[in-house]
Task: inverse folding
């Protein structure tokens, strides 16, 4: 990450092998590229506070602290519940944020960078098994083939219905079968989000080439009308029209719209120690006290925010029961402490356009 400036993240399609943990990727969707490969958190730590279903990997940001040896590698992960009914305005109970870090010399990765070679071997067999469906720790396995692992009974049933029933016999016989499909579906929808590389670089200074602010406001209004930003699924058309008529009076939203007009495609803003670019001043209940780190009791600071534009890239749909957000603001331990488990829970604030 760039110092003394704001970095923005945009998405690029990349082959899956380039998003392997050994390359320390920032990425969206697919399965998590874990950092510490041994000390993974239990599935119970990555469940929805609303429905208790397993959460699904949303994104991860590789963000080392160059000034700290034990943070030579450092990644922040975000998980979210796919059940749209758990998504509530200005409530982040359907999200979990985890921070993990390692020194340069560690038990998992080479001291020197890996070559970008698709065929370079990297054995994962000695580390904990991962769920076939979602990629988090899989403590349970299929009782028949004993070769497919799961984080929960729900995901085991889902995998059985979507192909493991046929593959299980081959696995018992020792035959090779295709790797688990990254698009296992439930009720016709993908369980995992579409996978992208998250490319992060410095935000350009404002210049004469910036997109007109009114054009960007109109684009965001269109997203709102399509129910793709800000948890607007439960607002009637007449209420939405009134809301958008009043929106230019919201100076915070105007600032947000003008700032993102420089890079309309941005899905992330990284500003460690800075301030979030809030989406509205009309929201009640989202801006709460940021608790201290539960491991060292040190202060937390803002690190990055996920933008509503990401919803357009991960195929969540625009129906009534889709997940949604205005912005997601992530706060991490200012000292990036090493106390506690390898994967440490951090704080996330969800701010939406509606109240």
Result:
């Amino acid at each position: 990450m760039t110092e003394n400036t704001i970095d923005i993240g945009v998405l690029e399609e990349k082959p899956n092998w380039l998003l392997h943990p050994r390359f320390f990727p920032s990425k969206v969707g697919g399965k998590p590229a874990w950092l510490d490969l041994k000390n993974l958190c239990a599935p119970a730590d990555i469940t929805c506070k609303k429905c208790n279903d397993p959460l699904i990997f949303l994104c991860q940001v590789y963000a080392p602290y160059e000034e700290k040896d034990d943070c030579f590698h450092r990644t922040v992960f975000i998980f979210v519940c796919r059940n749209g009914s758990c998504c509530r305005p200005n409530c982040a109970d359907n999200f979990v944020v985890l921070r993990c870090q390692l020194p340069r010399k560690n038990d998992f990765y080479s001291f020197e960078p890996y070559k970008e070679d698709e065929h370079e071997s990297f054995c994962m067999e000695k580390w904990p098994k991962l769920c076939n469906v979602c990629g988090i720790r899989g403590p349970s396995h299929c009782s028949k083939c004993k070769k497919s692992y799961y984080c929960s009974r729900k995901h085991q049933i889902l995998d059985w219905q979507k192909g493991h029933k046929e593959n299980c016999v081959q696995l018992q016989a020792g035959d090779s079968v295709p790797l688990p499909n990254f698009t296992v579906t439930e009720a016709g929808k993908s369980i995992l989000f579409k996978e992208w590389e998250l490319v992060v670089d410095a935000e350009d200074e404002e210049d004469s080439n910036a997109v007109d602010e009114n054009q960007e406001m109109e684009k965001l209004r269109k997203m709102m009308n399509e129910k793709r930003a800000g948890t607007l699924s439960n607002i009637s058309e007449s209420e939405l029209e009134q809301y958008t008529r009043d929106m230019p009076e919201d100076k915070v939203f105007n600032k947000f719209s003008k700032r993102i007009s420089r890079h309309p495609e941005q899905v992330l803003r990284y500003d460690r120690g800075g301030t979030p670019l809030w989406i509205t001043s009309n929201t009640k209940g989202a801006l709460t006290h940021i608790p201290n780190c539960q491991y060292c009791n040190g202060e937390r600071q803002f690190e990055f925010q996920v933008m509503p534009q990401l919803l357009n890239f991960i195929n969540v749909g625009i129906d009534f029961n889709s997940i949604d957000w205005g912005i997601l603001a992530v706060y991490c331990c200012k000292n990036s402490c090493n106390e506690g488990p390898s994967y440490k829970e951090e704080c996330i604030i969800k701010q939406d356009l509606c109240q």
Remarks:
- Residues 179-188, 207-211, 231-237 have pLDDT under 50 and may be disordered.
- The first helix runs from residue 153 to 172.
